[in-house]
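Running this now, will post back.
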Amino acid sequence: MIDYLQSQKQEMIHLLETIVNIDSNSYDKDGVDQVGALLKDKFEEIGMHVKVHRQAEQGNHLEIKAERESEPKILIVAHMDTVFPKGEAEKRPFSIIGDKAYGPGVNDEKASHVQVLYAMKALKESGSPAISNVHIIFNSDEEIGSVSSKALIEEAAAEKDYSLIVECGRPNDGVVTSRKGVGHFTMNVQGKSAHSGVEPEIGVSAIEELSHKVIRLQKLNDYDHGLTVNVGLIKGGTSVNTVPPHAEAEIDVRIKNKDQGMNVTKSINEIASEETVEGTRTELTGSISRPPMERTEGTGKLFQTIQETGKELGFSIHEVSTGGGSDAAFTASKGIPTIDGMGPIGEFSHSETEEYTDLNSLVDRTLLLAKTIERLSE
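Update: finished.
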């Protein structure tokens, strides 16, 4: 496998360039479907079965197995969408500086597309039966919460023994064993407008009410225990000389465990329901949309297997925790041992200039993925 993948490195980089230079924002269905069509062709070329789950608004999802009716025990999940707008690839196309590849979505997570494909090619080339033990999902909407693909991922996860999520690997051979859960809430406050100079006393300021709520929301933060509540966007009012009749806040929540999620949701609802400025009314929408990926005993054993596999290959695999959410949450919440960050190594995802993938890790991480699949299939 090592010799085969080394011989394919330039071909892998060329495919990475092709995929990075295709815009695939979550809301750019044509772009995501172009990536999906390319991947479908590549997997079918090596004899794998690809089922396309067509979507009306976002891009189509791909479901891939070695045989149509097989029942693999390892689930691999990757996403094809990025956060970058249409036109970004033309503005700053794929480039290589030293050992690093740059471009929109190169690290999050187009390098992983190449990795998964070539891990399957390496298994096939070596004659390993482990290729039949893999069930792959490429989804199109991870960056916007996996709204349409969540059910597909959870269905695919049923009866699986392991889940490997190929978000980017962390520097110095890191993989992810726990992630925070993610919530998004919107607080909409209604007041009453009035001329601020002529008759301000008959107005009711929605912005004043929202200001009291924002202060209380920010006080919910408990960094020591991994809970963050961030009021990231606010807007309101109609003009500078009008008592504002409406105001809105968007709130990002990150939780370390399920109990935190229940407690913080209760607190946010209480803040929304309690009125400080008489005459205002507040509507709250939203929820914890992505559960936390908690480190379990099963995850610990799976990590140990990956660490031992890495050691045999000369890698010093270590585990990390992160505050970002991913599709790993959906498999972990079903009790399936899950490891994330199995993709090629890089940093600065979502950055307009600094996001990169370490090309030295492209072959290494592909080899690690293939050998891990082999070892888990024994």
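The chain has two domains: 2-180+292-377, 181-290. More later if anyone needs it.
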